[in-house]
Design brief:
The protein is an alpha/beta fold. The chain has 17 helices and 32 strands. The model has no long low-confidence stretch (mean pLDDT about 95).
C-alpha cells in the first residue's frame, strides 16, 4: 500500500492543501465515540483530511458531494477472508464486494501461496493495490496446514516468516491452527516468536475448542479467533482475552448463534467483529456482503452503532490497523459509505481511497484484470486417471469399511461410520443404496508422481456421475466425489488437462465446467458471470441427486484436516484427533 509522507498528511489535515472533495450535509456515525451528529468530511488524495466544519478546506477546485439526509460510516472490514474461495481473482472479488461497502479485507492469500509461492502473493497484493479494495495480508502460520503434511506447491515456514514479516504489506500471522500450538510444533512456535518480536498480532483458528485449548492459545499470544461453533465457546474465548470474529459465510451460518454473546450473555461488543471467511459470489449478489452481517446483528438486537463498530473500528483495532482504516478520522484512508440510515443499513454510495467507486449497488468502472505471470499459471502434473485405478483394494466379496460421513447439521464437519460394502475384482465398490460413494484426491504438483488416492464417503447423495474441483483448500489438489468411476476419471483428467476448474460429469459427458485458469483456483470473470456459473454447477449436482446445502461448498473443504473428525487428502483419510492417516479397512483401529 502506498503511504503518503507524514508532511503531506499534516499539510492536508491542517488545510494547507485544499481538499479534493468534500462530502457535505450528512450525519456522521462516529465509531470512535458512538455518536451520530451532523458533520462534513474533507478528503485530500486518498485520505481523510478533516471532519466537522470543513469550510476552511474548500478551494476553488474542490468537488462537493451532497449527502443531505443521509448517514456517513467508515468502509467495512472483513476480518477473515479466503477470497480465493469465491473463485474470483482479486480484481473481480473487489468488484463484487465494494459495491456493498466492503473496502478492506484481512487475508492470508494462502491458496495463492500454496500454489504459486511468494511470487503469487506479491502479484495478488499488487493487484489489490490497483483495485478499490485493500488487502491486509497476514503471513500464514505455515503451509501446508495439514497434519500430517500433505503435498503442496510451496511450503512456508520460519525462514519465509523471517523474510515476509519484514514486508510493509505484512500485518500479522494468519490463521494459526490450534493443533499446531498444542503439538508444540517447533516451526510454528518459531514463527510465533518472530511475530512477538516484530510486534505483529497472531490470528487464530480453533473450532470447538476445549477450555485448556483456549487457555493455551491465549498464552501463546493468539489475539483473535474466527471459529466458534457456539455462543458459549465464543464467550469463553472473550473471557480468556481473545477478540472474537463472528463468522457468517455461504455455508457456515454462525451469526445468530454467536451474537448471543452480546444480546443474551451481556458481553461488551467492542472486542467483537465480523468475517465471512468463504463466500459464494451468487450469495453476495443476492444478499450483500459485510452489510448483510451488520443488518443481521441489528435484527438480532445489537444497537445499530455497535453493529457498525463491529464491522469497522472493532476489526481494525483487533488487527492493529486502526491507524489506517476503521474510522472516519484524519489520516485514515478515505473509505466512506453513504447509507440510508443506521437502522436499515442500505449502502447507497461507496468511496474507497477517496474516490466514488460504487453507487446503487453497481461499481462505477468495469473491473480490468491485469496480465498474469507464469507464477499464477502453473501446469498440473497429475498422472492420467483410469477408471479401474479408482477404488480401495480389498479381499473377499465384501468388506467392513470406515466411510467418511458428512454431518448434515454442522457445516463442514465429517464423522466416520462403518459400512459393509461390496468387493468386486479386489476393489471396494460404491453402494448407492447406502449412499456410499467414492472420493478421490489427485496430487497436482507432481511431487509424489501426481498420484490419486481413493476413500469412501457418505452424505453427498449422488445417484450417478461425479463432481470435482481443483479449488480445494488447504492444498488445492483435485478432489472428486462420484458414483461412477469412469465419470470420476473423466472429471479429474478434464480439470488437469485444462488447468483447473470445477466440473460435473454424468454418463461420460461434461454437464457443466467452470474453468479456473488463474493458479487453477480463480478466474477473471465478472461477478455476475461467476454467480451464474455457480448456480449452473450446483443445479447440475442436484440433478445427480446431491441434497447437501451446497455440493461444491462441502466438496472443496474435504482436504482440511483442522476440521473434526476426518479429512481426505492426497495421503488418504486423516483422523483429526490422532492426526494420522487411517486404515479404512480396519475401522476398529480408528
Amino acid at each position: 500500500m502506498n503511504q503518503p509522507s507524514l508532511r503531506a498528511l499534516i499539510d492536508a489535515s491542517e488545510g494547507a492543501v485544499k481538499a479534493d472533495r468534500v462530502i457535505r450535509g450528512g450525519q456522521l456515525v462516529n465509531v470512535c465515540t458512538g455518536e451520530i451528529y451532523p458533520a462534513d468530511i474533507a478528503i485530500t488524495g486518498d485520505r481523510i483530511a478533516a471532519t466537522g466544519d470543513v469550510s476552511a478546506y474548500v478551494g476553488p477546485d474542490t468537488e462537493i458531494v451532497d449527502a443531505t439526509g443521509k448517514y456517513l460510516t467508515p468502509g467495512l472490514i472483513d476480518g477473515h477472508l479466503h477470497l480465493e474461495c469465491s473463485k474470483l481473482s482479486v480484481t473481480m472479488f473487489a468488484d463484487a464486494a465494494v459495491r456493498y461497502g466492503t473496502t478492506s479485507v484481512v487475508s492470508g492469500l494462502d491458496q495463492f501461496l500454496v500454489v504459486a509461492g511468494l511470487d503469487g502473493v506479491r502479484e495478488a497484493l499488487r493487484e489489490a493495490d490497483a483495485s478499490p479494495m485493500k488487502i491486509f495480508w497476514g503471513a500464514p502460520f505455515k503451509t501446508p496446514y495439514t497434519l500430517p503434511e500433505t503435498t503442496v506447491g510451496f511450503s512456508f515456514g520460519p525462514d519465509e516468516h523471517a523474510e515476509t514479516q519484514e514486508w510493509a504489506d505484512c500485518f500479522g500471522v494468519w490463521e494459526t491452527v490450534a493443533e499446531f500450538v498444542l503439538n508444540r510444533d517447533e516451526k510454528v512456535l518459531r514463527a510465533l516468536e518472530l511475530a512477538h518480536r516484530n510486534r505483529l498480532p497472531v490470528f487464530g483458528c480453533a473450532p470447538m475448542a476445549a477450555t485448556t485449548t483456549i487457555n493455551a492459545l491465549s498464552a501463546a499470544g493468539v489475539r483473535l479467533d474466527h471459529e466458534s461453533y457456539t455462543a458459549e465457546e465464543a464467550l469463553e474465548k472473550l473471557r480468556a482475552g481473545m477478540s472474537l470474529l463472528i463468522r457468517e459465510s455461504s455455508v457456515a451460518h454462525f451469526m445468530n448463534e454467536n451474537v448471543r454473546t452480546i444480546t443474551e450473555f451481556g458481553a461488551q461488543s467492542r472486542r467483537v467483529g465480523f468475517c465471512t471467511d468463504d463466500m459464494h459470489v451468487a450469495d453476495i449478489l443476492r444478499e450483500g456482503h459485510l452489510d448483510k452481517l451488520v443488518r443481521m446483528a441489528i435484527e438480532a438486537g445489537v444497537r445499530p452503532v455497535e453493529a457498525i463498530q463491529m464491522a469497522t473500528l472493532n476489526c481494525a483495532e483487533m488487527y492493529r490497523i486502526d491507524h489506517l482504516v476503521g474510522s472516519i478520522t484524519p489520516g485514515r484512508y478515505a473509505d466512506v459509505l453513504i447509507i440510508d440510515s443506521p437502522e436499515s443499513f442500505q449502502v447507497e454510495r461507496v468511496f474507497a481511497r477517496g474516490r466514488l467507486v460504487a453507487e446503487g449497488g453497481r461499481t462505477i468502472e468495469a473491473p480490468r484484470a491485469p496480465e498474469r505471470s507464469a507464477a499464477l499459471s502453473p501446469a498440473f502434473e497429475v498422472a492420467p486417471v483410469a477408471a479401474g485405478s479408482i477404488g480401495v483394494a480389498a479381499e473377499g466379496d465384501e468388506a467392513r469399511v470406515l466411510v467418511v460421513e458428512m454431518d448434515r447439521t454442522v457445516p463442514f464437519v465429517r464423522k466416520g461410520v462403518e459400512m459393509t460394502l461390496p468387493v468386486v475384482d479386489g476393489t471396494v465398490r460404491a453402494d448407492l443404496a447406502q449412499d456410499a460413494l467414492y472420493v478421490t484426491v489427485s496430487e497436482r504438483y507432481g511431487k509424489n508422481g501426481g498420484g490419486t488416492v481413493t476413500a469412501m464417503i457418505n452424505g453427498f447423495g449422488l445417484r450417478s456421475g461425479a463432481i470435482a474441483s481443483s479449488a480445494a483448500p488447504d492444498d488445492n489438489n483435485i478432489v472428486c466425489v462420484g458414483a461412477d468411476r469412469a465419470d470420476m476419471a473423466l472429471a479429474v483428467n478434464h480439470l488437469a488437462e485444462r488447468g483447473g476448474g470445477q466440473v460435473v460429469v454424468d454418463g461420460g459427458e461434461i454437464k457443466e465446467f467452470l474453468p479456473l485458469p488463474v493458479a487453477g483456483i480463480v478466474a477473471d470473470l465478472a461477478p455476475e458471470e461467476m454467480a451464474a456459473a455457480e448456480d449452473r454447477l450446483e443445479a447440475a449436482a442436484r440433478a445427480l441427486g446431491c441434497a447437501l446445502p451446497s455440493a461444491f461448498g462441502y466438496l472443496i473443504f474435504l482436504e482440511i484436516t483442522a476440521i473434526p473428525e476426518y479429512a481426505v487428502t492426497d495421503l488418504g483419510v486423516v483422523n483429526y484427533h490422532t492426526q494420522d492417516v487411517v486404515d479404512i479397512l480396519n475401522p476398529a483401529a480408528n
